[in-house]
Amino acid sequence: MAKSGKKAIAAALKADRQSVGRVLPGERDEVLRLHERRAGLDELVLSLQESPLLANPVFYDKVVADLGRTVKHLADWWDAKAKKYGWDAVPGGQWSIDFDSCNIFLDHGTARHGG
Fold it and tell me: Per the domain annotation, does 5 fall within a domain?
């Protein structure tokens, strides 16, 4: 892709992303732990799809229940921080975090609660 095409894509992506605030480092660490837990559970499910362990209803139910709780905790974290800090929101928008800077962004036109 030509440089001008890459610049146009980068500009379009930036236009769809709005800085809405920051969180404290401790708050960032909370959502990072939840994000890592969800990613780990997602990876566990994917890696065990062909395994007899996942066919075990007790094991499967535990993994699904843990994943459900983790997803709810993530959604609750985003909702609580949005209320605390008064972040902007749009229908179909998703908040995301830059874990290095603790900055929060609103990405327009994507699913809600990213991380």
Answer: no
